[in-house]
Structure formats: structure tokens, C-alpha cells
Amino acid sequence: MDGSNSRTTATAGSVKTILVVEDEKDIQELICYYLKMEGFRIEQASTGDEALRSVREEKPDLVVLDLMLPGIGGLEVLKQIRFSMNLKTLPVIIASARTEESDIIMGLELGADDYLPKPFSPKVLTAKVKALLRRVDGSLDSHSPDGTDKQTITTAGGLVMDPVRYTCRLNGQEILFTATEFALLYLMAGESGRVFTRNQLISSVKGSDYPVTERSIDVQIASLRRKLGSAGESVRTVWGIGYKYQEQDP
Ligand code: CA
User: Fold this and answer.
1) Which residues of 77-93 are buried (b: 16+ CB within 10 A; e: fewer)?
2) Does residue 209 form part of some domain?
3) Which of 96, 215, 216, 234 is buried most, with the most CB atoms less than 10 Å from its CB?
4) Does residue 228 form part of some domain?
5) Model pTM greater than 0.90?
6) Which range of residues forms the domain containing residue 100?
7) What CA–CA distance (Å, rounded) separates 11 from 181?
8) CA of 129 to the centre of ligand 1 (A)
9) Cβ atoms of 191 and 131 closer than 8 Å
């Protein structure tokens, strides 16, 4: 046997390429090692310039992006990706130390899909990468062609939300939400696992029935959790950052 019997990823289709942007050699090697073990193809970059060149030339399927980089920083790289016609939907996970919480929030608001707190465990790294690739593959089929996304959501946990009739059922039982609660839950349940900052939640419900502040988001979340009963656990607090909907641990 030679070395060619590497495992392939659990993700359907061809082998996915991950671009790992990290200036610290040890961390770079570690991330690449674990992702290779999962069968991913790896591209590497250690500066912001290299990262931007690589996303254009190598066309990776996902980017793990360190924020503290020499030269062009990670947030600027992310901004350029999101402002580029060809790259704006490229899945990006930002990697940052917990002490840089404001950078994480900024990254999520600039459109990062998820974040990886450093120091990270290899399990969390690979779980996040796989979950994001699944989410992206899934949303390709489920999004309506006109981009309105006004589609019924059905989750594995038995939650069914119809945004046209404004109805929500949990295992067949109707739950009555206010327009704001419905909008918040619809947004989060539609992208299970994605972390939303309070600001992102605020802008998603602006113009509905409630004056929206960071504090009022917390109040709305508490209320919709109550209405969901034991399923309310799926609406998770992400400390210091915001909220996400996730029915079970990754
Ligand atoms: Ca760094």
C-alpha cells in the first residue's frame, strides 16, 4: 500500500478545497494536519495578500481565516471577499482569540459564516468546517431563485415555519409568535448553527412590530424560548456574541 489511500470527506461530491490563512507556522500546520486527516485538499496562505491571491486563483470551497495577520489584516481580507462579485458567497470561518471578541463580532457582521475561538480543539475545527459545507450545499437547493427565500422551514426537530402564512408548528402543535419573534426564529432556524450577533438580529427585524435595541432582542429571545417549551433549548446563547439555533451539539 502506498500513501494514496487517504480518506475522502463525508461531504457529498468531489473533494473540497480549504484555504487556511494563518501566519503562525505551528498553528497553520496543526489546522492543515487535521483537515487533511478528514480528506480535504489544503491551500495555505500566511499573509492577507497571499490569501486574496489564493481565493481568486485556487477557488477554494471554504476559507479558515486568521484575523491577526501581517500587512492586510483578516477583517480587510473578509471585506474584500464579500465585496467581490465572484467571491461574496464563499464560506468563511474566522479564527481569533477569545480576547478579540470585538473583532469576532465585526467579522460576523462583515459576513463571516462562523468563527473558531483560539485556542481551538481539532474536533471543533473539523465539526465547524463540515457543518458549514453542509449548510452551503443544502442552501443551494433550498433557496428560491428570485432570492426572496420565503420558503417553509422544516427542521429535524419537528419545527415547521411558514413565512407566507406566518404559522409555526412544533411537532404538529401550533405556536403563536409575535411578528418579531417569528422573524427572529425564522432567520436563525433557516440557518441552523450560524451565529448571529445582536446587531444582525436587530437589522433583520427592523420595521416590524417592536422598537428594537440589543436589550429588547434578549427579551424577545427569552419570550420565544418560553413559547417553544423544551425545544427552547435549541435557541442558544453564544456568550459575548449573540445567538444561534441548533437542535443538537455538533
Ligand atoms: Ca495570527
Assistant:
1) bbbebeeeeebeebbbb
2) yes
3) 96
4) yes
5) no
6) 17-140
7) 33
8) 19
9) no
